[in-house]
TrEMBL record:
MF-aspect GO terms: damaged DNA binding; single-stranded DNA binding
Name of this chain's protein: ERCC1-like central domain-containing protein
UniProt entry tagged with the keyword DNA damage: yes
GO cellular component: ERCC4-ERCC1 complex; nucleotide-excision repair factor 1 complex
Pfam families: Rad10
Family stated for the protein in its record: Belongs to the ERCC1/RAD10/SWI10 family.
Entry annotated with the keyword Transferase: no
Taxonomic source organism: Nematocida ausubeli (strain ATCC PRA-371 / ERTm2) (Nematode killer fungus)
Biological process, per Gene Ontology: double-strand break repair; mitotic recombination; UV-damage excision repair
Subcellular location: Nucleus
Main location: nucleus
SUPFAM superfamilies found in the cross-reference section: Restriction endonuclease-like
Length: 212
């Protein structure tokens, strides 16, 4: 497995026991297997330097790497506190908006197990292949020329009970996921055609429970 030179001395390295580690320059922290690229941060670091992870994501995007970017987030802060819960919620929504998957973990051992599992996944997992096929289908269903991130946002909202893809497209028009989530929680979702009280309540329940 390849790891960034800056990861030397990281506490979780000693828990990666199933494969040798080769240090090299990479835009990721770890490159397990052939398919994934991992960024490893702690919630405490994110709370003190919230722009750090997005700078890393921008560098990955500009590198044109073919690896799937995944953030393994070590929950090093008390997730029940208001500040930590808010930071965790916002990070998940922002990562969804940028097309980056995030995996929360509660210990360095758990982080290492996730990385080892990815390393031994020699090809793209079937559920990821199916997801990519769904993304392509969704892009074709959308008007104009949507990006993959546009399709991801639409599918994300369409996962809310009672909310259809058509509803999602109307809700997304001109707004970010963060704005939509905040509006839903504050019960001030815009009056798009077909978005009635039942769907608004479903959105509120989704965002209140999904990320808290």
């Amino acid at each position: 497995m390849k790891a960034n030179e800056l990861q030397r001395g990281n506490a979780l390295i000693k828990y990666i026991k199933k494969t040798p580690i080769e240090y090299k320059y990479t835009v990721f922290d770890y490159e397990p297997g052939e398919y994934f690229g991992v960024l490893h941060i702690t919630l405490q670091l994110h709370m003190s330097s919230p722009q750090y992870i997005f700078g890393r994501i921008e560098r990955i995007k500009s590198s044109n790497s073919k690896r799937v970017p995944i953030i393994i987030l070590l929950l090093s802060a008390d997730i029940t506190s208001a500040s930590a819960a808010s930071a965790f919620t916002t990070l998940q929504i922002d990562c969804m908006a940028t097309g980056v998957r995030i995996i929360p973990a509660y210990s360095p051992v758990e982080c290492a197990k996730y990385i080892e599992t990815m390393h031994f996944q020699k090809s793209e997992a079937s559920h990821l292949r199916n997801y990519r096929a769904t993304l392509e289908k969704t892009k074709k269903e959308l008007s104009s020329r949507p990006s993959e991130v546009d399709a991801q946002k639409l599918l994300f909202l369409a996962a809310i009970p009672k909310v259809t893809k058509r509803d999602s497209a109307a809700i997304l028009a001109g707004r970010s996921l963060r704005e939509i989530a905040q509006s839903a929680v504050n019960e001030c979702t815009a009056k798009e055609k077909g978005i009635g009280v039942t769907k608004k309540n479903a959105m509120k329940d989704f965002f209140m429970q999904k990320f808290n």
